[in-house]
Amino acid sequence: MSSTAMIINVINTGGTISCVGDPLAPMSAQEFAQACQTILDPIISQRFPDLQLVYVTDLVFPESPTGTLDSTNLQPTDWCLMAQYILQHYAECDGWIVLHGTDTMGFTGTALPFLLSSFSAKGVGTAVLSKPVILTGSQVPMFYEAAASDAPLILNYNTDAFQNFCGAAAAVQTGIPEVCIYFDAKLLRGNRSIKTDANHFDAFSSPNFPALGLNGMALELNTAVVLPPPVSPSVSLDDPAVRERALGLVEHVTANINRFPVMQFNAFPAWYNSAAPGAALIGSLLNACIAQDIKGLVLESYGAGNFPSGNPSQPSEGAIYQALASANAQGVVIVDCTQVLRGVVNDSAYAAGSWLAEVGALGALDMTPVTALAKLMLLLTLAEHPDNAWTPAQVKQLLQLNLLGEVLQVSRLDSRVNPVLLPGQTLGALDGSATLVNDPVLGPQLRNSSGQLLWSASADLPSQQMPGRLTVNNDGTLVFQGRNGTTLWSAPCGGPDGHPSMLVVDGSAKDGSLSLSVLDYVTGTSCALYVQGGVLTA
């Protein structure tokens, strides 16, 4: 092995990939590691001679006598075990392959990035992943063991396990600073992935986000959609102090996450009686769930976010409305997702969903219900940590913000990911009370939901240079350029000492907290362009 070898740690949590026999039974981490070293490593080294695979055998799940665990039985505290191990051994390797059962891989793919990262109340990363963590598994076991014989293990016939393992080995060497799922020649963002097929090798999909990479003769990354690395060394997990803080947060989650249960609740056709207050099967089921002291509720609504109220004519009189209103009053965080695989939640599009805002339901945009559950559970748990001390309102805002690529970004323009607002495009307050539009004729304008002008970049833009584009640069400058590249307007932000930044529409025009500002990633300071109740900046 070359002295410049790339070291990759392989964690085997369990699942089909490491089962063997008839009927299938899990191998221990030690047995699987030995088989991989004998059978797989020589093949992997043909393609990657400078890759050193180190098989982890001392991560044990206490629920299982073998130490590995079918993903069906994984608990939230098991997410923490994985994250804790990765953080404790972070400096020892260049990346991670996590072998995992397929049933709950999507949940782990969401939980791990949030456990391996931390954020300020504004959603700016304070601990950021700098190395790849690639989850993979299989529909068919990796190895075959002949019945009633002493024959050694051999590679299974027609197994997807071998191809997925090889693909994960290729993906981890890209250095992509994300938690991903590799399956059937596709590299997917973990918090965008769901299992969509139980019987074919193409088991995972990312319905609302493109693949990060495709593997044919070689792995090709879609670099335009890959998350950027840490903005500075001071927030990178390569820094021991940053890792120590992250570990402290994971330890807090381990000790407290079971106190913050979140459940998914599917909309389905069920009886209700509009004439009899309190009479609806779904309402009764919701009340029973809330009585179990759940802290969050992820609704899997119909279509664009429609959920039955129990009274089509007067939703507020319906038993389902009243059950959700009661939950909201008790502090339960309600998230409106859709059970449809592809699309964006817009619960105001139909009267059948518009009432959800009245009971406090938060629109999840294109976030999957799997992601909403894991993200909400972790945010609720982390809110109690002294380093965070987030208010309920801050938890709700963080849930709706795009923190790690898990949801459509609607309120921010990010110099590192999506820096340009093209003509006709918009940013908006999370509650829909205000919109910043790059008007093709008038340029950037902030208006409330009634259409009232709150702020404009300039009242006198030359028509011959329109339409233009609004760009937030990596030095924090905000610039509006005309069609030929001429700067028509710039904000007094950033400059020679500036850093990567975000243009942020924050707060709400409804309660007077609306603001438009440029937020510096590194310093955490804001350059205000508009503050509701203040002086219009032009």
Give a verbal description of the structure.
The strands form 9 sheets. Strands 4-1-5-8-11-12-15-16 form an 8-stranded mixed sheet, sandwiched between helices. Strands 17-18-19-20 form a 4-stranded parallel sheet, with helices on both faces. A 4-stranded antiparallel sheet has the order 21-30-31-32, with no helix packed on it. The chain folds into 3 domains: 252 residues, 3-Layer(aba) Sandwich (Rossmann fold); 107 residues, Rossmann fold (3-Layer(aba) Sandwich); 120 residues, Bulb-type lectin domain (Agglutinin, subunit A, Orthogonal Prism). Helix 2 packs antiparallel against helix 5, helix 3 runs parallel beside helix 9 and helix 6 runs parallel beside helix 7. The model has no long low-confidence stretch (mean pLDDT 94). The chain is built from 10 helices and 32 strands. The chain is of the alpha+beta class and 538 residues long. The termini are far apart. Strand 17, helix 6 and strand 18 form a beta-alpha-beta unit.
Report the major sheet: 8 strands, mixed
CATH class of the largest domain, anyone? Alpha Beta
Beta-strand residue fraction: 15-25%
Total number of domains: 3
Provide mean pLDDT, rounded: 94
SS summary, helix count:
10
Gyration radius (Cα, Å) is 25 Å
Summarize the structure.
The protein is of the alpha+beta class and 538 residues long.
Descriptive terms for the model:
3 domains; Agglutinin, subunit A; alpha+beta; single chain; 32 strands; 8-stranded mixed sheet; Rossmann fold; 538 residues; 22% helix
